[in-house]
């Protein structure tokens, strides 16, 4: 039967216990309580043209009576305590401004240093202006009810921005394509065949984007082709594991990493035909977010419902210490040799994983990294900040 | 309120909880320099607040106290033995000993001679961290430059001393593995023993042993010297060395004793002490009463929240079935909570509910993944029926692609296996692989894989196969198919196989006998032709 063949393809499934270490007694770890459960948080990118001395990030909440979007300013360093004449605790992030958000924040992204966009559990998308001088947030435009069941609203689970296009996905298995200055969606794709929740989306290029859904499918869509069918469907075979999140390698967009409901991290080579390259048994529970470091893509961060946040260091796997067979091969296909995440046999031994906040037990819903500073948002109503991480 | 209490909220576990910052509730990890004395700070703060009654700050502390008590109830009392949970708790709450150790390593040339050496060892022992204590003791041996051989005199004295030690260890304590190890390493190591003996540290080692024996006097001394910081630390030491098998319901003896030892006089008890002792005794009402002291504002909420946390499992079960699940993310989180606490009935109920919602919304993909998650055969069969009726309605076989990647789970039910085969049949037809398509049809019909209510539709789909140039069905197979056809007709006419099958079949053809009649006629003609051709072919 077909499934027997499918089943035999899941060949790379590793346990990673040997590669694991915990960051013990980390002095640069700070917890800030927010009194609301954090669903998403993102660093603000530096303003164009000059680097900013400010570390600003935004948080969005979920499962509260009044959900909010908050902007925080985080000055690194320690305060000097006069009474003890000692350097004291790390500085706390300061709340700059706050704004009411209708519905739970399901995704939050900065478009540039002054604009951020949020998606909501009531099926809408909102563009918000952040004015640093006036320290305020202001809603600029809103796409209401773009995801819905026949009569009820339905959560918009995520969006991806690649200006001028915005792509939103939702639990109604719809994909909306929006333009930033047009009020109605310019196209809607209804996925009637899978007809299950689409959990995340990421833009591969101007005209391509990738979605992952609850049935373990990764679909590549091409906006240049007719909308009714995806350009490619890849599956996490035989397992029916719900894929929850996705991130693409910043330099090599054909490498995508997804996190699944059972805690696995799945690495996909989008040039392959149908199946993922490697499945790594990682966390104990749903992986809510995977993030490559934008400038050091050998560093990957994953956070999970089991309360763990892991720093994956793939830097040991570089082209110089690969087996010779692969190194010679690199002349023909350099991408494979320099991308540590695709070499499945090596990955198991060379990858190093650090648990950044080993004592946290409550679900971490989101994480983001800029430079050497990592932020995580938890259901414990806390933001965990780990500064000056060792990146390679 | 309901939602707030469910997915465990505000519970700052483990180390994150260790330090409560004075300003607005920042927890700092014990690595940071101002960690020491945190416990004292807390006590001081609490007392300050009693005077100032600043509700906002008070609230923060009260919340923390309750969060902690949540931890106690869920983790400490999982079994009826409390020791291991308490030990873990105390290690995170009294990291001062690590500070001492660190300072000592930084400052000392010869660790053994440092003023903090013995306090550190005491600290480790009273935290139950025997391994660290033994390690430190061993370091001292390596450190030692004293190469003198053990003279017969020393050996003799040492043996005598060792015997004394042994005598001082009572049977109950002997059984305790950690203690045993410490005793062995401190008494069994000749060099160390002589070293200690020579350096006139007999007092120290006997103190240590007295701690191990749980001698009250030494414990009291240690409290006065500041090695044991709080009465609840003393309580843990007491349980560890005096009564390691204490059950939850015996805890109050130890608590009373520790309070007495530490304070001497119960009137010196602070608010926090009251709360903590109530937490240890699982006296929910008293905890909430004490913790909500001074805050009228949120007392009701606090009570509600607190009580829900305290009787954790029962309330958890009750609440879980009442959480409005308005998004899949939330559902998955609740499922994890169910998995964590072994609430398998609730887990299955939630999956079924999600599955039915998905069916109502015509999201069959979601529905089948929920049904497969909980492995509910009835639901799976129901969804297969939904798929088939949708197919009968619009003839679009594409949506059956859903079964392609189900994997091994496809054998869960016969119906699902049928759907898989049916999908395969269509794939073969579409790719022109008619021979394989024909063999699947025979398998489905003759071997009875397909439910009878779908025979009619299968035969209708197969008509092109009967008319191909190449003969795909031999005469025996065609006879069998004809038999199936007759059965369909019989079941429609008289009181046939089963009432429900007939009804479904009738519904499928919209109770329009003409459509059905035509369809069956077409099938019969096609089959008859095929039979004739098969016969001729076989005779040739």
Note down, in words, how this protein is organized.
The complex is a heterodimer of chains A (392) and B (540). Chain A is mainly beta and 392 residues long. Chain A has a single domain, classed as 7 Propeller (Methylamine Dehydrogenase, Chain H), CATH 2.130.10.10. Chain A contains four helices and 32 strands. In chain A, the strands form eight sheets. Chain A has a five-stranded mixed beta sheet, with no helix packed on it. In chain A, strands 2-29-28-27-26 form a five-stranded mixed beta sheet, with no helix packed on it. Chain A has a four-stranded antiparallel beta sheet with strand order 3-32-31-30, with no helix packed on it. Residues 1-13 and 319-337 of chain A have low confidence and may be disordered. Chain B folds into four domains: 2-90 and 285-320, no CATH class; 110-228, no CATH class; 325-407; 432-540. Chain B is built from 29 helices and one strand. Chain B has 540 residues and is an all-alpha fold. Classes of the chains: A mainly beta (392), B mainly alpha (540). Chains A and B meet through α1, β3 and β8 of A and β1, α20 and α22 of B. β3 of chain A pairs antiparallel with β1 of chain B.
